[in-house]
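Re: [ENG-882] Designed sequences occasionally contain unexpected residues at chain ends

Forwarding the minimal case from QA. Structure tokens:
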């Protein structure tokens, strides 16, 4: 029986839950393991947890499970991972996005970094300050008037990964969720530093403001998504469809990104790998988020995530 792994608010704080159908069940009660009270605890014990969660979900679906769940409509969902140790974000990683950005600059789209023999490239977002969950009200940073959207497939690491091969990289993924890599475009450059300077770009101000990584609504286990490069993904601002693409348009696929990252750092359970965004961001159209805007993101086989921007 398919299930989703999530975090929800209860009277004692946050708990890990399993979404089975339209009902949420306490994960630790399903597995009988106290450490599974949090999603991070589950991810740190993923090899055992995955062997307990799937049959537990099957028992519940068949009516043989103990205890009653709570209807999803009555549950306050939180970001599924509270909180990642690290958030690695792929830059410039969709062919259609690279083409739209080139055209916006009056350039002809050229060969991709992969075609030129380069490796995947990532920057890092903060964790506790950036991560917010479903239905969040994200405050626009006072220093920016050009906050942009970026729907992204996020891979959730489930095992310690160091120097893993591309062929084995997806074995280290516990599941997938949805992320919005919100970006303050008008502070991405330090104009008094020349473009040739390594200090010209300001990744902190652009990518790490509070609430800059809405995440959720849950994690779809990797067993349910054997081909992460064949997923549709979309983003709407209010009722207007802005992004509509497929993960098949990634330049470096999910496995290649994980393998590259693991050659430089040790990936830990609960770390996130945001795999890049497709065409349809606001910058080429000079459209940016404003107070009151509702952003909805959708990825095939995972679900949808919404949040609102406030001033």
């Amino acid at each position: 029986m398919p299930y989703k792994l999530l975090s929800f608010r209860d009277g004692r704080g946050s708990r890990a839950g399993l979404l089975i159908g339209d009902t949420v069940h306490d994960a630790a009660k399903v597995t009988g393991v106290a450490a599974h009270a949090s999603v991070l605890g589950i991810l740190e014990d993923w090899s055992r947890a995955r062997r307990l969660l799937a049959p537990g979900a099957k028992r519940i679906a068949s009516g043989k499970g103990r205890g009653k769940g709570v209807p999803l409509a009555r549950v306050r969902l939180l970001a599924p991972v509270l909180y990642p140790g690290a958030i690695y974000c792929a830059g410039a990683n969709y062919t259609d996005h690279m083409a739209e950005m080139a055209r916006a600059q009056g350039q002809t789209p050229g060969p991709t970094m992969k075609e030129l023999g380069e490796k995947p490239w990532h920057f890092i977002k903060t964790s506790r300050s950036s991560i917010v969950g479903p239905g969040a009200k994200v405050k626009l940073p006072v220093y920016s008037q050009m906050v942009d959207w970026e729907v992204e497939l996020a891979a959730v690491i489930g095992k310690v990964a160091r120097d893993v091969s591309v062929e084995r990289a997806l074995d280290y993924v516990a599941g997938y969720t949805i992320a919005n890599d919100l970006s303050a475009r008008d502070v991405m450059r330090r104009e008094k530093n020349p473009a040739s300077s390594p200090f010209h770009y300001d990744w902190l101000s652009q990518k790490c403001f509070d609430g800059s990584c809405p995440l959720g609504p849950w994690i779809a286990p990797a067993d349910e998504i054997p081909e992460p490069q064949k997923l549709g993904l979309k983003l709407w601002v209010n009722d207007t469809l802005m992004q509509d693409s497929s993960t098949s348009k990634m330049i470096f696929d999910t496995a290649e990104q994980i393998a590259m990252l693991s050659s430089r750092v040790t990936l830990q359970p609960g770390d996130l790998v945001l795999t890049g965004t497709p065409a349809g961001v606001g910058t080429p159209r000079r459209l940016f988020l404003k107070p009151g805007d509702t952003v909805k993101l959708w990825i095939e086989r995972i679900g949808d995530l919404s949040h609102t921007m406030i001033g």
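QA comment: On inspection the terminal residues look reasonable. The mean pLDDT is 95. Proposing we downgrade this to a documentation issue.
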